[in-house]
């Protein structure tokens, strides 16, 4: 079902909520800066950071939602590109950001809030050339910030004092995570991880055998973690040894998150979101949505195996970028299932019914076993050939499927007229015509 609802931000930027059958909902757009990170403490309360540039200096903001991401209030903005943000409860959290301009000025900041993001104050500042890229909040007292050049900035007393430490003297570090105040890892682009079990005082270098430049990793506890970089690597002993165990379409994800030992997601360029339900052995593509010509998804956050958010940016025209915020309450799973136990022996796209229709209609299609590894697309187009709805964009098991499309939606309801829907997958494309009469 496709519906559009127009709502307004408290700082006069509008956003569009697009409900569809794809499992992910586009919650907001209109912020003229890419969204960089997202963190929700529960199903209602969360924060995002943005980072961009006006061509001369950095620009960024921190925003907060108290209704699950439907609307956002800007808490802080200025000439700082905000990167990571994390909270330990509704009130207390930290964010990192960087300032830069075209004449060589550079500064890095660590901010703290104790009132849920209403106000932030600077806890740490320096003017070093390299940027802060990752934030890890292990506890109320233990906070870590990673600099691109291998410097770790940490505190053990909630930010009253900060310690600077070079953990690896190279511009190759890309990600960091702590599962508690003592145990953490840093990922290098040179296919190894650094591990500490004493709050960053000492680090052990462990090579895992990868051949591609990794961007992200994730641990669910002190033992089990994944590095995803096209080929996937997994450890069950805290990173002491790693096993190659699957490939995931040879994509280069920008973020990975697991909620337990089985359920996890990755995201990246071209709007990619993939999910695993077997600990990473197999990955299934999910449609990410987004009303942009191109999409990059930078960061994800899940509070359970069903509810999560993904943020990034989209291109609406050359050199014009807007933030992207997506949400799922189904784990990204589509809202339809096979309607028959019989397995078809060929592709088929049926005529929609009813036809003509008002305001909704159903579309049935069949996928044979020969297409079980291909991605299936079902899209709706207007009379000018513009795609107005993507109903399916994922790998489907063989079977007969039925999906409903609604042309209602308040201010953005579709007008009466002729529309087309196209089923496309490996070796098969078919288009049919339908009529909306109001």
Characterize the structure shown.
With 438 residues, the protein is mainly β. It is built from no helices and 37 strands. The protein has a 4-stranded antiparallel sheet with strand order 3-30-29-28, with no helix packed on it. The protein has a 4-stranded antiparallel sheet with strand order 4-5-6-7, with no helix packed on it. A 4-stranded antiparallel sheet has the order 8-9-10-11, with no helix packed on it. A hairpin with a 4-residue loop joins strand 5 and strand 6 (58-65).
Question: What is the topological layout?
Answer:
Blueprint: E1 3-8, E2 14-19, E3 25-28, E4 35-40, E5 46-53, E6 58-65, E7 73-78, E8 81-87, E9 93-100, E10 106-113, E11 121-126, E12 132-137, E13 143-147, E14 151-155, E15 163-166, E16 173-178, E17 184-188, E18 192-196, E19 204-207, E20 216-219, E21 225-228, E22 231-235, E23 243-247, E24 253-258, E25 264-268, E26 273-276, E27 284-286, E28 294-302, E29 308-317, E30 320-328, E31 348-349, E32 360-367, E33 375-381, E34 387-395, E35 399-406, E36 417-425, E37 428-436
Antiparallel strand pairs: 1-2, 3-30, 4-5, 5-6, 6-7, 8-9, 9-10, 10-11, 12-13, 13-14, 14-15, 16-17, 17-18, 18-19, 20-21, 21-22, 22-23, 24-25, 25-26, 26-27, 28-29, 29-30, 31-32, 32-35, 33-34, 33-36, 36-37
Mean pLDDT across residues: 85
Largest sheet descriptor: 4 strands, antiparallel
The total of helices stands at: 0
Terminal CA distance reads 17 Å
Low-confidence stretches: 1-21
Strand content: over 45%
Secondary structure tally: strands = 37
Helix/strand/pairing category: mainly beta
The geometry reads as: globular
**Helix fraction?**
under 10%
Arrangement of strands in the largest sheet: 3-30-29-28
CA radius of gyration: 23 Å
């Amino acid at each position: 079902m496709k519906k559009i609802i127009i709502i307004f931000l408290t700082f006069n930027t509008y956003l569009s909520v697009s409900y569809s059958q794809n499992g992910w909902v586009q919650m907001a757009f209109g912020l003229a800066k890419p969204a960089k990170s997202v963190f929700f403490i529960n199903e209602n309360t969360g924060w995002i950071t943005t980072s961009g540039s006006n061509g001369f200096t950095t620009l960024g903001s921190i925003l907060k939602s108290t209704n699950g991401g439907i609307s956002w209030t800007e808490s802080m903005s200025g000439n700082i590109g905000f990167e990571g943000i994390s909270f330990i409860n509704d009130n207390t959290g930290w964010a990192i950001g960087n300032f830069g301009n075209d004449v060589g000025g550079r500064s890095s900041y660590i901010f703290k809030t104790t009132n849920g993001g209403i106000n932030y104050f600077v806890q740490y500042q320096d003017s070093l050339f390299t940027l802060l890229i990752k934030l890890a909040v292990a506890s109320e007292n233990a906070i870590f910030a990673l600099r691109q050049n291998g410097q770790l900035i940490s505190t053990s007393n909630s930010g009253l004092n900060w310690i600077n430490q070079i953990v690896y003297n190279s511009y190759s570090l890309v990600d960091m995570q702590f599962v508690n105040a003592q145990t953490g890892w840093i990922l290098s682009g040179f296919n190894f991880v650094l591990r500490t079990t004493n709050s960053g005082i000492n680090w052990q270098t462990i090579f895992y055998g990868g051949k591609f430049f990794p961007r992200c990793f994730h641990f669910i506890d002190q033992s089990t973690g994944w590095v995803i970089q096209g080929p996937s690597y997994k450890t069950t002993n805290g990173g002491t040894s790693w096993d190659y165990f699957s490939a995931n379409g040879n994509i280069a994800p920008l973020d990975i998150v697991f909620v337990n030992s089985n359920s996890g997601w990755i995201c990246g360029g071209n709007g990619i979101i993939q999910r695993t339900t077997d600990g990473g052995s197999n990955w299934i593509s999910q449609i990410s949505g987004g009303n942009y010509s191109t999409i990059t998804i930078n960061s994800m956050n899940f509070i359970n195996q069903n509810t999560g958010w993904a943020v990034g940016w989209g291109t609406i025209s050359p050199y014009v970028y807007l933030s992207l915020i997506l949400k799922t309450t189904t784990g990204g799973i589509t809202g339809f299932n096979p309607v028959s136990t019989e397995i078809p022996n060929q592709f088929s796209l049926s005529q929609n019914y009813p036809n003509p229709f008002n305001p909704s209609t159903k579309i049935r299609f069949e996928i044979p076993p020969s297409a079980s590894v291909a991605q299936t697309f079902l899209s709706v187009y207007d009379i000018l050939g513009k795609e107005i709805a993507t109903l399916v964009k994922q790998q489907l098991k063989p079977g007969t499927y039925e999906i409903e499309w609604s042309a209602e939606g308040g201010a953005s309801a579709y007008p009466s007229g002729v529309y087309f829907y196209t089923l496309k997958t490996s070796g098969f494309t078919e288009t049919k015509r339908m009529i909306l009469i109001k």
